[in-house]
Amino acid sequence: MTTETLLRVENLKKHFPIRGGVLGKEIGSVKAVEGVSFEVKKGETLGIVGESGCGKSTTGRMLLRLIEPTDGKIYFEDQDVTELSTSDMRKLRRDMQMVFQDPFASLNPRHTVEKILEEPLKVHGIGTPKERKQKVRELLEIVGLSSYHAKRYPHQFSGGQRQRIGIARALMTQPKLIIADEPVSALDVSIQAQVLNLMQDLQKEFQLTYIVIAHDLGVVRHISDRVGVMYLGRMAELTESEKMYDKPLHPYTQALLSAVPIPDPLYEKDSIVLEGDIPSPSNPPSGCAFHTRCPYKMDVCTQKVPELREHEPGHYVACHLYTEEGSAAGQNKQLPEEGKHE
Amino acid sequence: MKTQEKVLDVKGLRVSFFTDEGEVPAVDDIDFYVREGEVLGIVGESGCGKSVTSLSVMGLIPNPPGKIIGGEIKLNGEELTTASEKRMRQIRGNEVAMIFQEPMTSLNPLFTIGSQLMDAMLIHKMGNKKQAKQRSIEMLKLVGLPRAEEMMSDYPHQLSGGMRQRVMIAMAMVCNPRLLIADEPTTALDVTIQAQILKLMRDLNEKMNTAIMMITHDLGVVAETCERIVVMYAGKVVETGPAVEIFKDPQHPYTRGLIQSVPDMRYKKQRLYSIPGNVPKPGSIKQGCRFADRCEFAFDRCRQEDPPLYKTAEGHSTRCFLFDEKEETVHDNRNTVKS
Ligand SMILES: Nc1ncnc2c1ncn2[C@@H]1O[C@H](COP(=O)(O)OP(=O)(O)OP(=O)(O)O)[C@@H](O)[C@H]1O
Ligand SMILES: Nc1ncnc2c1ncn2[C@@H]1O[C@H](COP(=O)(O)OP(=O)(O)O)[C@@H](O)[C@H]1O
Ligand code: SF4
Ligand code: SF4
Ligand SMILES: [Mg+2]
Ligand SMILES: [Mg+2]
C-alpha cells in the first residue's frame, strides 16, 4: 500500500425519482446515496459495509458511471470522472473494472468462457485474435481454472468457478481498480474462502486496488485495510479495519458489530439488539438518519445532520456524540463505552 | 425445561428425487433426534439435504419427483412416513410447524395478516372466530410486533422483511407446537434484524418450551442458538454432538475445514483456511467417503468403503475412518486433525 490516492469521491449523491399518478410525474425521490466522500489509496482494499438498501451498490456503480450521479465529484488519478465524455469514460473502464455478486446473472449463458473473457479486450481494441485467446488461457490459469475450460459455457461451472470467471473477466484489461460488489455472498462458506484467498493473491501479484462492497462483516474485516460503514445513504464511520472492529465510535457501527453471530458458542458477547426497522430512504428521518433506533439519541440528533468528521487521526465518524453541538446539548448524553466489542 | 424425551426421532431416512438424469439421493440414510425443549442445529452447505430433511418431517416432499424411500420419522412417538395426508394436515401447524427463508413465499399476498393467522387456528379447530382473533393479536404481540391490532388488517407487502418473518413465527406458534422447524429463518434478513429474530426464537424456546430444529448454513447462527449440532455433507450426517464440543474440537475433517473457513470478525487472519474443490452434487460420488476428493487425510480405504458413524464421546459421533479404533495406520493423522 502507498499513500498515493487513486480515487477520491466528494459529496456523491444519487436520488432516484419516484413517479406516480396518471402522468407519471415525479412525486418524490429515493435518496439512495446522500453525500458520500472517501478516498482510496493505491494498493489498498477499502471495504464498504451496511445493511440492505443503504446505498452500497449504488455508490459502487456510480464510480464507474454505470449509474449517473445526481451530484458530487469522482476523481480517478486526478481525472474528474463525472466530466468525462462517453468515449473517454469507456477508455477509463480499462482501468476500473467491476466484479458482481451473482456469477449466474453476470455471465452471458449463450457465450463460451472464451468469448466472455475476450469481450473486454475487443471493446478496448487490445491485441490480435491470437494474442487475445492466449491471454484468455493465461487468465483462466491465474484464477485457478484450466485453459481447457475456455470452450465451456457458464452453466457447466459451479458457483465458485463462475465467480473465478467473473474475476478473470475483470482482470483482462489489467485494471488498476476493481470494485467488487458482494463478490462472495452467493457462495458456500468453503468456496467463499477460496475466492477471498484468490482475490488477496491477485492483489499482491498485480498491485490491484480494491473496493469491496459486502454485508458480511467477517468477510470485510478479513479483506479490508480500511472500512466504511454506511447507513441510509450516508457514511456513518470510516477508519482502519482494526480500529473499526476494536473501537467503533458510531452507535450504529457498535450495534451492527454486536449483532454479528460469532462462530464460538462459549463467546459471551455484549449484544446491543436494536429496536425497529431500517427506515425507508424515500422518507429518511430528519437530522441523523439513525436517530429512530439510536440508544444515545439527543435533541440535536433529530434536528441537525451530523457531518463526517475526523475524530482521531484517520478515524472519521458522523455522530453528534463527537461534535460540539452534541457535547453542548448532551444533558442525557452517555458516551458509548469504548471497546464494547471485546 | 429439557427432558431426555425425544420430540422427533429420525432413523435411516432416505429421500430421492427421480429426475431425467436418474435417481438423485438427496438425503442418504440419516439419523438424528430433537429432545423436548432443545434447540438442534442442522448445518451444511447448499444442496447437502437440509431442506429436504425438514420437508420430509413436514410431509411436504413434492411427489413426484421426490419420494421418501426408506427410514422412520417419529414425531412424539407417531410414525409419519406412513401417516395419511389427512393425518399430516392435522399434525402440520398443530404439533410441528415450519418457517422458511423467504417469508413472502409462505404468506398469501391477497389476504390480510389477520385472516391468515386466524385461518391457521380455525383449520385446527382452536376455538371460534372471536377467540381466534383474540389469540392472533396475542401472538403478534408475543413476537414483538408493535400495533398488533392494526396489523391484523395489513397485507404482507405492507410489512418489512423482518416484520414478515415475525408474522411467520406468530403463525407457526398459534397452535403452540412442540417442535418448530426453522429453515434458514434469518438468511434473507439484515444482520441487525437477524439479531432481533434470533433473540425472539431463543425467548420462545425458553418461555414456551418449544423445541427448535434450526437449519442454517451460518456457523455463527448455530453457535449462538443451538445446544447440539448435526453437520451434513452430500446427503449424509458427517458429525453430530454438543455445539460447544464441535466448535472446540471438531473431529470430521469437513467440520474442521468448514469452521476454519469462516472469517471470524474478532480476529484478523493473514489467510483463510480453505477446503479445496467443490461442493459435490448429490449422487455424483457413488463409492467411499463423500468427502474423500477434498480431504487432506484421505487414504485408500476412504475411496472404497463408506465410513460409518463412529462414537467418539458421549453424544458425539463422526463419520470418518480416522476414528476407527482398528485403523492403526491413521492414528497419527487423526491426531493431526485433532490438533
Ligand atoms: N434504479 C433504481 N430506482 C429506484 N430506486 C433504486 C434504484 N436502485 C436502487 N434504488 C434504491 O436505492 C437504495 C439503495 O440501493 P442499493 O442497491 O445501493 O443498496 P445496497 O446497499 O447495495 O443494498 P443490498 O445490500 O441489498 O445490495 C435502495 O432503497 C434501493 O431500493
Ligand atoms: N424438487 C426437487 N427436484 C429434484 N431434486 C431436488 C428437489 N429438491 C431438492 N432436490 C435435490 O436435493 C438436494 C438437497 O436439496 P436441499 O435439501 O434443498 O439442500 P439444502 O441443504 O441446501 O437445503 C439438492 O441438491 C437437489 O439436487
Ligand atoms: S447523531 Fe445522535 S442519533 Fe445519530 S448516532 Fe449519534 S447520538 Fe445517535
Ligand atoms: S473417511 Fe477418509 S476421506 Fe473421509 S473424512 Fe475421514 S479421512 Fe477424510
Ligand atoms: Mg447491493
Ligand atoms: Mg435449503
Automatic annotation (TrEMBL), chain A:
Protein name: Dipeptide ABC transporter ATP-binding protein
Domain ABC transporter: 7-257
Pfam families, A to Z: ABC_tran, oligo_HPY
SUPFAM superfamilies associated with the record: P-loop containing nucleoside triphosphate hydrolases
Statement: the UniProt record of this protein carries the keyword Secreted: no
PROSITE patterns hit by this protein: ABC_TRANSPORTER_1 (PS00211), ABC_TRANSPORTER_2 (PS50893)
One of the protein's GO biological processes: transmembrane transport
Entry GO MF terms: ATP binding; ATP hydrolysis activity
Gene3D superfamilies per the UniProt record, alphabetical: P-loop containing nucleotide triphosphate hydrolases
Similarity annotation: Belongs to the ABC transporter superfamily.
Keyword Protein biosynthesis: no
Domain of life of the source: Bacteria
CDD domains: ABC_NikE_OppD_transporters
Keyword annotations of the record: ATP-binding, Nucleotide-binding, Transport
SMART domains, per database record: AAA
NCBIfam families xrefs: oligo_HPY, PRK11308.1
From TrEMBL, chain B:
Subcellular location, record wording: Cell membrane
Gene Ontology molecular function, alphabetical: ATP binding; ATP hydrolysis activity
Main subcellular location: membrane
Keyword Cell membrane: yes
GO BP of this protein: peptide transport
GO CC terms: plasma membrane
Keyword match Iron: no
Swiss-Prot/TrEMBL keywords: ATP-binding, Cell membrane, Membrane, Nucleotide-binding, Transport
Record domain ABC transporter: where: 10-259
Its membrane topology: Peripheral membrane protein
PANTHER family tied to this protein: DIPEPTIDE TRANSPORT ATP-BINDING PROTEIN DPPD, OLIGOPEPTIDE TRANSPORT ATP-BINDING PROTEIN APPD
Entry's family note: Belongs to the ABC transporter superfamily.
Name of the molecule in the record: ABC transporter ATP-binding protein
Lineage, highest ranks first: Bacteria, Bacillati, Bacillota, Bacilli, Bacillales
